[in-house]
Write the structure tokens for this entry.
Amino acid sequence: MKTQPARRCVVCRGQSEKSGLLRVVRGEGGLVLDREHSMAGRGAYVHASPACLSRMANLKMWAAAFRISASALEIEQVRKLMLEAVKTS
Ligand SMILES: [Zn+2]
């Protein structure tokens, strides 16, 4: 078995194994938190850390990650889910 492939956090641009990151997917209904890292579609990763989660409200970094602009509301909604996921894990 190889080690897990590294993924880059869109907030701080640091690389980590997938287990230390939360995955967000751009679905038809907007941004979704991909808890199992198994959803199809373009994904972006953010560290499961308060520092990165608090800084992810930057719209430009999401536009760059998904090549589609996301609304501030969408980002705030998915950010809440991510904060919940960090608390409960
Ligand atoms: Zn980060």
